[in-house]
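Why does residue order matter? Because the sequence determines the fold. Keep that principle in mind as you read this record.
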Amino acid sequence: MVSETARGFFDDPAMLAPPRAVRLHFDGGAFVLRSPEPLKPYARCIGEWLERWAQATPDAPFLAERDASGGWRRLSYAQARKAVGSIAQSLIGLHLPPGRPVVVLSDNSVDHALLMLASMHVGRPVCTVSSAYCRLTKDYTKIQGILNTLGPALVYASDAAVYGPAIASAALGVVTVFSQGAEGFPGALSFDSLMRTAESPAVMAAFEAIQPDDHAKYLLTSGSTGHPKVVINTHRMLCANQQMIAQAWRFLEREKPVVLDWLPWSHTFGGNHNFNLVLRNGGALFIDEGRPAPGPWWRSL
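Structure:
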């Protein structure tokens, strides 16, 4: 049963697009349902959303996660944009091989988000790989195959103690970055060092050069029928998808989403739908570890 309040929400044309569809019939009885509402213009690339909110609502909360003390590490849109500019400049300064992705091997985090956004901001595709390939096994055969398939320009993980053995086993010979423990991994850089670089005009020059059909992300299939396969996500695909959602969920134009989420960014639901829903609409994302923890954590939100 639907309450009167809920019924009013769904019937309000300002909240949801009307339930209309055009039915197209094909020989053999097949048919397709299509929305009669044309797709409106959408962003050129993912980074346009970050640029927009960093200017329009610089102090609005964007990203938050628990820190080691149990408090919250929070970044506003302006703070996130500043960090993205620094990291993007560091990526340019590393002179990474062109056309090869930045690969992330660990779980969702603020550092992960900033590196992902910085990579896409300067036209470098990013691929988040499920942490289970490194964290839940001592057999690194599958992650070695994944890394060899991706051919990364840079590999990032949160903790060298957890992810270092898997990375070392692949013998990639590429730039490696850790948020913790970089000093214990030969040749690795600390994530903090990427944050200390001053942004130059080269960042915005690279940003302006991005085309809608450039690769933004690579996602991996589950590998349930063999070796995981690489799926290309372009900026156009991701931006058009969010425009479609915004036209269906009209309340997003006046209600900024506030999301608490643990879904992994190695999957399109968490990494594209949820993350981009927040970013496109100037909302806030509270990053949950996705593992049980004692205590009523939600009370401090």
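Confidence is low (pLDDT under 50) at residues 296-301.
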